Protein 1
Amino acid sequence: MTYNVGILGKLISILNILFSLPLWSISLLLIVGASLSVWQKKLTWTAAITGALLGFLIFLSAGFFGLAMLGTFFLVGSVATALNFGTKHKLGIAEGDKGQRKAGQVWANAGVAGLFSALTLIDPQNTHLFVVAMAGSFSSAIADTLSSELGAVYGTKFYNITTLQKDARGLNGVISIEGCLIGLGGSILIALIYALGYGFDEFVVYIIFGGTIGNLSDSLLGATLERKKLMGNNGVNFLSTLIGSLATLSLCFL
């Protein structure tokens, strides 16, 4: 028990230090993180700058835990993309440029969170609702990334989401039970970060629900609009995170 209290005390101390950091320190942290991402070839320079600017905006509106959600999505997503990359390449489902993301992809996955961050600055009285919606967008983004990147590798049976008939692994709109469960795990992770910052309440469940809806929406859009080349992958990702955030937000008014 003494050990646990000591660990908890250290964690609280670290969080207090992070909360008290001046804006220039956060800016420096984002610049260092962006530079490392470019150095590790996870992001292009334009993507890194876009991510850093979105990160700063998110910090202004949601503080450290908002930034933690963004960072968790990026780190977990990068690991998922790199995991079994050789297998994905052989299957023809690997990300181009070895998973190095461009500015458009950053905006597609985190742009909705940035928009809700801006709304907190415009309408600060509804900040908490906007932060919940922001968490819903990250819940959707991470669920989609994990289910796509890992479901295609660890899934055993694959189905077209519109017909529920068996379909080819890795095609747009194709899901697996394993992928959906892995995606759900990602949504739970974002919800736990939210809970750590803002408390365990009904919003935690809303965030998980919104992430699941956003993830399934991404598959539906992929099976319809993207397969018909009516919308690109970035557009699908942006729209699905928007749907996930709005689904989360709608539950707040029930």
Protein 2
Amino acid sequence: MDSPSSGPILSRRRFLGLTGAGLGGLALAGCGGGTEEERAASKFFSDQTIVADGRPQRTVWSLTDDEGNLGDLAPESIDYLVLDPSGSEISAGAARRHLDGVAQPYYRVDVAFGETGVHEFRFATEDHGRHVGFAVPGDPADSTLFWPGDTFPSVVTPTFDDNAGIERICTRTETCPFHGISLDQSIASERGTVLIVTTPAFCGTVFMCGPVLEILIEEAAESPLDLDIIHGEVYVDPDTDLDRLAPIVEASGVTYEPYLFVLDRDGTVVSRLDHIWDRAELRGALAAESIN
């Protein structure tokens, strides 16, 4: 397998070139002054979800070839190397493929960012060459998100008995079962809470928004959880106005979907998943001993 060697220090021109290249390959200067073909890794997360606070941050990547996403051809694991803004290595290892219950194979790489600024991610595979991507963790003081240890806001969410002003409480073809209790009621109770916010019928990335709700429904049915599970939609009235966000979205400080928060019985954030996750990651989040 090729090694994702450190190579040249990241330049702004290289960063802009790769981010503008989309799924195409680029000829980049190698260590010996020649060139090597590298493709842009597909970035399946928003930089809003990562901050430089020294704690491991979840990043999600996918690989492509000339035909698009690798799909079933995606290798079971890939080697990665992460460089900080100065070009120094801060993390390296192997990331395994996630594909259980989702249509899009992806790789999770957790990195403890020590500073803000552009970080370079290099990936190497045995059969599909090298890929490169970039992430820009922000300052924790500027983040609008809630992180593990934060107290989540107590917000009214729609239920079967009270739509709380939301025209369609669930845009799934068959309404999901997670509208039996409002978030504020769950936080006030002695139970932990799982909050998932997604809009299956109106999401711009359908391969993410639908499956994550479906696997939560399956997990809840197969292994009943001693937790309140709540589904929130993104829009107040998606049939007429996609600019009016539901109160839960506004309160969460999030500018993307889907996302999931796990809260303990006091309403404190235990974990969070963003954008895409498979059954294995979901089970890991739900199994946290600190929920109850």
Protein 3
Amino acid sequence: MQLRDPAPGPGEVLVRHRGIGVNFIDVYYRTGLYPAKAPIIPGMEAAGVVEAVGEGAREFGVGDRVAYATEMGSYAELAAVPEGRLVPVPEGVTDDAAAAALLQGMTAHYLTHATFQVRPGQVALVHAGAGGVGLLLTQVLRSLGARPITTVSTPEKAALSRAAGAEHVILYTEQDFEAEVLQLTAGEGVDVVYDSVGRTTFEKGFRVLKTRGFMVLYGQSSGPVAPLDLGPIAKGSLFVTRPRLFAYVPDTAALRDRAAAVYDWIAKGRLEVRIGGGYPLAEAARAHRDLEGRVTTGKLLLVP
């Protein structure tokens, strides 16, 4: 079904997309794991240029390069977006990088700077180390002086994870990550687990945490986790949190501060964005199948 081109309402900006980010949150909305009133245009992230501005919108002009990552409806050529949810894209950041890095880059930023404030020398376990967030998160951890251990499914993904700065890479299809992590840390465990996988990794993750360690469950690509037994958590005085990006960018100022930090890293060459595949917008379903099948690396983009 073809829809009419949207028009910007009061306080909105009409954006013509040049790149559209594909994220697991899109899968969650598509499958109903996250509720949304149907029908919906999926997608939360895109970069493009301003095509028109609505009444009262004054911060951006026609032709300005912008991006967003917290508004539904990016799987389209055009979107009318509230001006306060847009961020400027600076010189030195390409359209593809702007679209590919915003949501996942801000996720890596808040996970390491706010959810758990990483300090030099700390050891972190990162699941899905060759995924979009995993590669960015590993680079950020390294830049902060931490020691990342990652899990991946194939030797090819292991090579990518090492190139991003992983100190150790565990091939979870052949090795038990619990045993490997404890061996690598001489039985001490890690300071923090960054888990975007969920059901298949969550329970074992607690057993590789140090006393007073942090379990950060920020995704559930393998499915929702089982109900939580507080006994093992109490035994190690452990912490567990289920953060979402929206809580860390509650207003325009916070959103633009985090986005500016990510784009500054990219512009200065401190953060490399790996784009694992570009799909025509009409093939969004194939992009979802590939993402869910875990056959991809880095970030996937849709091209309008």
Protein 4
Amino acid sequence: MKKILSIVLSLASILANAQRLPDCLRTSEYFKDGYQALVERMLLPESTEDEYDDLRFGRIWGIVILPSFSQEESVYCLRTSFGFKLVMRLPENSIWYTARHITYDEKKSTTPSGIQVSSMERNNVRWEDVELDMNVKVRELNITREQASVLSELFRMAINTSTSLMSSYESYSIVTKENGEKEIQKYEGLDGETTLFFYNGCAAECWSPEEGKLKRLIDIRQAIRDAIDNNDNGIIQDALPEARALTLEFRELLPDWAKEYLELSE
């Protein structure tokens, strides 16, 4: 009994002394790889000669959601001749799984014991060459200049305080052991969803946060989606105080020179 109690107390001590690393986004490759480039082609707007509102010119901001087992989706903001609007694009099927059957061949074999197994082997089709004939549902919602400004500033600040030390699906804690030594404990997520935020040619992401600033950022992301689903930008308006507060908290992660720059430039 005493031994069990000692173990419990030791675990409690470790948890009490755990220090989380900065609660911020992880920098992203910004649609550089084949899969995310395909997502960009399908779920984000193309450029035109007259309107440079695509990613290459950094004129739009928004989010891309990459779940583990369901369809991807995007929400982005465009400036129009009448103001601002949010656009949500949702494909009928998962881009990842649909494209994977094109870029890979499924090989089936039977083990000596008679069990049939399958494996995926890459074929000669590159992600960059994949073209999917897939319906994409599009929904739009007009928003005010204030709403667009507050949300874009939140995304800008969150992305500019991102780190490249950790990948989006990993979480680290610094734990102090009984002898006073410190060590890093790493936790990796498997099933969940990656949310990628982009603004002005930069992007950063996180994986299914459970608490802290990133969880609150995901809650605002959900408010944006709910507003579009319900055709009610009042939901976004209700989220603006939290968005402003969160922007200030991300801003505190900036180095002093960056804070001074922002103060002088505002």
